[in-house]
Write a structure and sequence with these properties.
By secondary structure, this protein is an alpha/beta fold. The protein has a single domain, classed as TIM Barrel. The protein is built from 11 helices and 8 strands. The longest helix is centred in the middle third of the chain and has 16 residues. Bound molecules: phosphoenolpyruvate. The site of phosphoenolpyruvate (PEP) has 13 residues, from strand 8.
């Protein structure tokens, strides 16, 4: 039985004041959520502030990216996995479509980052997903398989026991267009069956989140699908009431 996991990707949003309001709301209401793993991923500069503002052990903190180099060095503007651990980060989002599209991150780079995260005890939330053009031209499964294969080649299938996968159709991120529960389930089942070709056991255990315009009013139906184990939430994670409602839907 997989435990649902909901994570908030705050992207490059927030200020000390707005984050304090958001975290206060989460502190006040997280007790209403059932048996669900929860994490929030603030901009890196606010990670320590969020950790110190959270008054509940029920919400873990994660980062949105990290360097391929594990410890320290002359890499201006980067932060390492060792630094994330120093500030009690349990998760790191890797391969988000915005990192792939805007910053040109490749499958190979993402795979190496996954390896570095795992070697240092930080759980990667590995994002995969197709663009609208790729979906419409019939190469959706090939695109997702290629994204997964790069990571499988780097860390092996057994490592997926410690990796969270987030299926995020690029066309549904921040657009208000959600994949229908059936569309999302189809891809989640494809991902699980692909992993099952290498290990049925790992495939059954791996958490696969859905991400892309999840809101309180569509979360329950998405999360009720058999292969959807929670969500990676962008816009709606910036509002405590909405994020808590989504977490409740996952329970
Ligand atoms: C995301 O960026 O990971 C995401 C899912 O965003 P949104 O929920 O805003 O579509």
């Amino acid at each position: 039985m997989r435990k649902a996991f909901v994570a908030g990707n705050w992207k490059m949003h927030g200020s000390k004041a707005s984050i304090l309001t958001l975290v206060s709301g989460l502190n006040a209401k997280v007790g209403e959520v059932g048996d669900v793993d929860i994490a929030v991923c603030p901009p890196a500069i606010y990670i320590d502030f969020v950790n110190r503002s959270l008054s509940t052990g029920k919400i873990a903190v994660g980062a949105q990216n990290m360097a391929e180099e594990p410890v320290q060095g002359a890499y201006t503007g980067e932060h390492s996995v060792a630094m994330l651990k120093d500030f009690d980060c349990q998760y790191v989002i890797l391969g988000h479509s915005e990192r792939r599209a805007i910053y040109g991150e490749t499958d190979a780079q993402i795979a190496r980052k996954v390896k570095v995260a795992l070697e240092n005890g930080v759980t990667p939330i590995l994002c995969v997903g197709e663009t609208l053009e790729e979906r419409e031209s019939g190469v959706m499964e090939t695109v997702i398989a290629t994204q997964l294969d790069a990571v499988i080649a780097e860390v092996g299938i057994v490592a997926f026991e410690k990796i969270v996968i987030a299926y995020e159709p690029v066309w549904a991120i921040g657009t208000g267009k959600t994949a229908t529960p059936a569309q999302a389930q189809e891809v989640h089942a494809f991902i699980r069956s692909k992993l099952a070709q290498l290990s049925a056991d790992i495939a059954q255990k791996v958490i696969i989140q859905y991400g892309g315009s999840v809101k309180p009013d569509n979360a329950a139906e998405l999360f009720s699908q058999p292969d959807i184990d929670g969500g990676l939430i962008g816009g709606a994670s910036l509002n405590a009431d909405d994020f808590i409602a989504i977490c409740k839907a996952a329970g």
